[in-house]
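Changelog note: in this version the structure field was regenerated for every chain. One regenerated record is shown below for reference.
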Amino acid sequence: MPSTPDGRNVIVVGAGLSGIATAIGAALRGCSVTVLEAAGLVGGAAAYSGGQVWVGDNHVARREGIEDDSRELTERYVRDIAHAAPEALDPRAMDHWLTVAPEAMRYWEDIGAIRWTVIPGLADYHAEADGALGAGRYLTNQVIDGRALGDWRQRIRVSPYFPVGTTYAEMFVEGRRVSGDDSGDRRARDEEAQGFGLTREAAQTAGPAGGDEPDPLTFGTGVFASFLARALQEKSIEILTSHPVTGLLRDDEGRVSGVRARGGHGPVELHGHVVLATSSYDWNPGLVRELLGLGPDDFGSIAPDSLRGDGITLARSVGGAVAKIPPTSVPMLPGWESALGAGFAYGPEFAKPHAIIVDRTGRRFCNDSYWVDIVAKALDPDDPHLPFFLVWDEQHHRKYGLGAVQPGGDYPEGTVTSAPTLRELGQALGIDGVQLEKTAASFSEHAERGEDPDFDRGSLDYVLRFYGDAAHTPNPVLGPVCEPPFHGLRLRFLGTGIGSSGVRIDETGHVLDEQGDIIPGLHAVGSVAALTAAGSGYNSGFALSRGLTLAYTVAQELGA
């Protein structure tokens, strides 16, 4: 690994967004940094995400003429949405995050790691909460050309879940379907998301259409690519892929002093301060069961399969504690198992008009256009609703398709169940068909008028803009479920690489033991660390914001 004269060596475990940001910040403060990535590709869960970075009272909003925010409003919002389990909120961590995040985002822009822009007109999730705003808190990257990455362009993960190359402003007009245009890159990712025809590896490494053509990168892929491009400019940063870390080293005084890893030529040992940045535990069934209480029939993941909870395992090996956030507050999406056993898939179709979510009794139980309410109600320990099912009619099929299935297209065999009546569909899926007919009839009567008196579907600005059909009236997420044939499938919760529970840290990223004492030589950033700064509250963009803030903070300390 590269080294500095004074021996300030840093080892970052994980080459996702928070890990690469930590490496940049530490390198610019005089440290020599080695980033070890277990997988062959870099970017982690952030590269698959929508690239939303939620920051209250930020300089980008002010630059773009949005002046409504303040530090006080931001805290009021976070505290209000964290009310379900106030004991899960760490006030010191929250204060540090909300205070330092604006400073950190300005820093990352000032040093050339990213050019920020505000996602236009996107409201906070919880519009009813104290301190909520209708726009200005979501940042993402201005478009970056993938050619700036050189050979590393082929080594970054490209999101199969968002139309990379399209901006948010364009997507809000065109709709959130991953395009089926002539781009082999985009088409490959579209097919991979559903497991149709391409392996996961082939889709993840799909590159731009041609070396001389512009290669616009947006969403999470673009945010990560922006930071990676900056990291590649620093000679004191070395990024090693296919180097899973297998253990932590400790010196005679118990301080973490390095790592053991498995490289291409066998085991290696590296010495220095260690920063865990391995993201979450989505692909570790034991940790999923421990932290979410879900088994394999009810859980999957759309995050990279390299997210195996390695950071949690490493921290525990040296006495690190784990902080748990209630499963009812963990960001998960309703999705399904892909055809041919090729992983898992999801899309905005659950929130489109002409669809509902029901449990085995055939009844709705939540605002089924809003994942926050779906998770909270389905996993309510006092009134659970698993298993749960998505049901839609032929209007939905004709207008929206399903994932990679284009509108009106054929569903892959074994994925979707169809029937001429709702009663027969219910019987085929193991749902009370008689009640399903009653549920759909009642829902449809109100949906015609753009209303949902039972669960207020269609009342949240974020959902209407991000998931709805802007061309559908009178409400972008409400339409009757009445036209045969009818279709359905069993849903499961899909992790997104934000497990909320994770390694216990203090407000500045030091890993803590069970007694709350700092474990010397060990930090954690990103989603490997429990999201105690927000507790049981969540809004899209919290995780990337907290991750980049911790990266900034930890790098400052390591370079001091």
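Spot check on this record: The chain is about 30% helix and 20% strand. The first helix runs from residue 17 to 28.
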